[in-house]
Amino acid sequence: MTTEPLLRPVAVGGLLLKNNLALAPMAGITNAAFRILASGGGAGLVVTEMVSAESLKYGNKKSFKMLELLPGEHPAAIQLFGADPASMALAAQAAERAGADAVDINAGCPVRKVRRSGAGAELMRTPLLLADLISRAVKCVKVPVTVKFRVGLEAGENLGPLLARVAEEAGASAITLHGRPASQFHTGPVDLEAMAATAAAVKIPVFGNGGVENADGARALLEAGCAGVAVGRAAVFNPSVFAEIAAGLSGGRLPEPDSGARMRLFLRFLELNAGIYGEEHGLTRARKLVGFWLKGLPNASAARGAFMKLKTLKEAEELLIQYTK
Ligand SMILES: Cc1cc2nc3c(=O)[nH]c(=O)nc-3n(C[C@H](O)[C@H](O)[C@H](O)COP(=O)(O)O)c2cc1C
Fold first, then answer.
1. Per annotation, catalytic residue among 109, 114, 130, 190
2. E-only strand ranges, 32-97
3. By CB neighbour count within 10 A (0-12 exposed, 13-18 middle, 19+ buried), where does 143 fall?
4. d(CA 131, CA 172)
5. Prior bond to 75 cis, omega within 30?
6. What is the pLDDT of residue 288?
7. Which residue would you say has higher pLDDT here, 4 or 68?
8. CA spacing 20 to 30 A to 253: which of 43, 48, 145, 216?
9. Most ligand 1 atoms within 8 A of CB, residue of 186, 226, 233, 236 to mutate
10. How much is the mean pLDDT over the chain?
């Protein structure tokens, strides 16, 4: 068992993170607006939604837009997915030019469309290709290259130690290990033993991921030997979860944010979203999240319905101000 403090700075290659708590990449969620909230909420590293290396190769505008980073979110990693080493190398260069502090390669996505192209979790079946993707990217950029994969494809399988060694030898600077097999998508328990064996197999930091909602959850992964923890869904409606975990790991406790603080944070998110996509489109994109932000508040259902029709930030403020007091 490690004698180091559980909460600690961690070096990812030449990138020193202030702490070992990272925001996990989430498609449709971890856009720049959300990453700024998570960074302000104490995350030591934030990660973009996955961006297609092939789309970047063909100059897809939406994919290039996804590479845009804002000043308040660094250090930030851009996550790429793909199965062609030449495209991955080009995409890694594009990510570096966009200001990424690290480039992360997705080797854990269970979605069929992604796997059909040989990318995401499919790369766990093809370690030589995974190594090629990593090493080509490493050669093409100065920033650290990291990789995210799962403990296995099916329950009970532990590919972690083998893949971790492959990644390390190919030049990866860190690993994010989702402790659920790809067949489980995002539900069910994590395989703590497989995670411990993976973390012990390599010298590079392994960020454990899966089901962490608070300091106790983070502690379990850190005590199993992970150098850090990546938090996904628990951050979505509480981007300050990182500061809460940090306080808990240090023996303290932060007061839970009250509904006023939460709503002010949501308004800030809407403002940032408007800056990125324009007011109306920014609000449209926030529609799928509003139910969760309003959960448990009085008249939430009516407010949610009203939110669906909003077109301006001023209208959003008028609607939500009742909750900020
Ligand atoms: C909506 C959603 C989108 C996701 N998108 C990505 C992604 O783009 N790249 C990736 O590597 N993992 C993605 N994941 C997986 C998360 O990074 C994380 O591994 C998973 O949610 C488990 O962590 P958690 O239990 O803390 O949420 C996604 C998960 C969710 C729920």
1. 109
2. 46-52, 76-81
3. buried
4. 9
5. yes
6. 92
7. 68
8. 48
9. 186
10. 96
What is the percent of the chain with per-residue pLDDT over 90, rounded to a whole number? 93
Number of other residues whose CB lies within 10 A of the CB of residue 260: 11
Confirm or reject: Cβ of 152 under 6 Å from ligand 1. no
SS3 105: strand
For ligand 1, say whether the CB of 278 is within 6 Å of any of its atoms: no
pLDDT tens digits, residue range 46-105?
A: 999 999 999 999 999 999 999 999 999 999 999 999 999 999 999 999 999 999 999 999
Q: What is the pLDDT of residues 37-63, one digit of tens each?
A: 999 999 999 999 999 999 999 999 999
| Closest by CA position to 75, among listed 106, 37, 39 | 39
* C-alpha 230 – ligand 1 centre gap (Å): 10
Active site residue 140: no
Neighbours of 321 (CB within 10 A): 12
Helices 259-277 and 32-40: crossing angle, nearest 10°? 140
Cα of 292 from ligand 1 centre, angstroms: 17
Q: Does the CB atom of residue 179 touch ligand 1 within 6 A?
A: no
| Sign of the dihedral through C-alpha 303, 38, 284, 80 | negative
For residue 2, pLDDT over 80 is answered with no
Q: Which phi and psi (to 5°) does residue 80 adopt?
A: -120, 150
- Looking up tokens 């324009």 gives 278
Closest CA to 15 of 100, 134, 105: 100
Strand partners, 81: 52
Give the residue whose CA is nearest to atom 7 of ligand 1.
26
Domains recognised in the chain with CATH numbers: 10-249 (3.20.20.70), 259-323 (1.10.1200)
